[in-house]
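User: Please predict the structure of the protein below. I'd like the answer in structure-token form so I can feed it into my own downstream comparison script.

Assistant: Understood. Taking the following sequence of 306 residues as input:
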Amino acid sequence: MTLHLTSTQVSAACPLCQQLSHRVHSCYERTLRDLNWAECAITLVVTVRKLFCDNLECQRRIFSERIPQLVVPWARRTNRMTQHLQDTGLALGGSAGVRLLQKQDYTFSRDTVLRCLMRLPLPSIPLLKQVGVDDFAFTKRRRYGTILVDLERHRPISLLKDREADTLAQWLEQHSRIEVLSRERSATYRSGMNQGAPDAIQVADRFHLLQNLREGLEQALSHQDSILKIVDTAQRLADAPEGTVIARTSETPVQPTAQQRAGQRRQNRLKTYQKVWQLHQKGPAGAFEQKVTVSAETLSPYSFQL
């Protein structure tokens, strides 16, 4: 459906000097994409005017009238159409947003949604008191940057191009009211915080503390595997019915190296990855069937009589 519209403004203001003008130079048409009406795609053909600027000191002699409530200058979509794309992109991202738009009978590409997001202005950074600092990978094992998070509002506030101490110090100098800085146990970040925010309190974040604790426990328990097996055998003997024979072994297991443990973790990830793709190829019905089968197998040892 195509709608032909005409502007009814009596006068228009020059975009440079803001002086009103009534003298019409010519007219032209703007073609705009608007939100769908039910199942109909809507195109607006808007006739707007070009006017003379009567201000002799203005650099622009001829200008086109603006309709800010409908569309911004040089745009090919209405404001509400652009707002719809931005809301979808912010909620779902590029690829997932396009899939939803296709269900709504819009034929936009992923790049179009991302370009609409890139035009959004960055939100202003509020007064910061508690900031978390950590690194992230632009390219894994090759190029890293620094992410800064507002711990009070639980949202990212800035990304730095690298994880060097000088870069972090320069950013902290621009936000001098920070009281608490949370970081991992990195000497580089500690140096940057000492330079940029010497009065701030530095604390170790919970994630890395728990991660270090887990790694320490794994290393400590890996050397006590033989003792743990003896304890496990004794526990099974205590819980087993009388007359049950449990085989014992006196062999000392070989402790896997760090490389072997990393290879085992990779194999587990590959198994999970392959299982996810198998369920994806089966579709929702296959995933539901797998879930029901697993649930039945899990509950099979437990039987109830009414």
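That's the full token string. The radius of gyration is 32 Å.
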